[in-house]
Amino acid sequence: xxxVNSMDQNQLKKAVARAAIAxxxxxxxxxxxxGSTANYFIDELAAIxxxxxxxxxxxxxxxxRLKRAGIRVFDLNVVSEVPVYVDGADEIDRQLHMxxxxxxxxxxxxxxxxxxxxxxxxxxxxxxxxxxxxFPLPVEVIPMARSHVGRELLRLxxxxxLRQGFTTDNGNLILDVHGLSIADPVGLESAIDxxxxxxxxxxxxxxxxxxxxxxxxxxxxxIVR
Length: 225
Ligand code: 5RP
Prior knowledge:
The protein is of the alpha/beta class. 29% of the residues lie in helices and 27% in strands.
């Protein structure tokens, strides 16, 4: 991994956010993710807002930022298609499987990603990993199922920790699962989804990204699945 300090990291996030604009068709409704990289993308989108119809947002925070930028925000239910979804990731591998949900927006992110025809992941080079799992895997849980889900996650080999003082946009809790080395992202995503009380987990493997725009000190690389 290249040596990237936090100031450089923000420059790389800005660079990939800018590069994502080339993937936005004219007159479309754009799916917009959540987090600091997605925020830079919203700033870039504001500059071309005249040539898009609007956006669907993966969180209340992104919806508010889009509106402040003068971009119309649509309810996903009234939208017939989302040609492209642009979002960051906490970790991504070369098969373009991801861990997401560091910002707690994983469920809405997964919903918008499921509707989108193309998922463009924008990430700085620190996010690219050979094996996913060093970043604790977020799992959104119905509050009354917290202990049950925690026990089941222990059985799967993880160490779940309740994200303190945090409630998702959907009124649920997040368990961050430490200690996983994820050899089979598709299998683990399915296994965690089978636990009663889990709303979503932060593995985006069954529906990974289609394109990764990876920001490195020597430029933005494009990796296609
Ligand atoms: C939020 C997410 C973000 O995409 C992920 O946490 C990356 O965030 P950042 O761009 O701030 O590094 O999944 O739920």
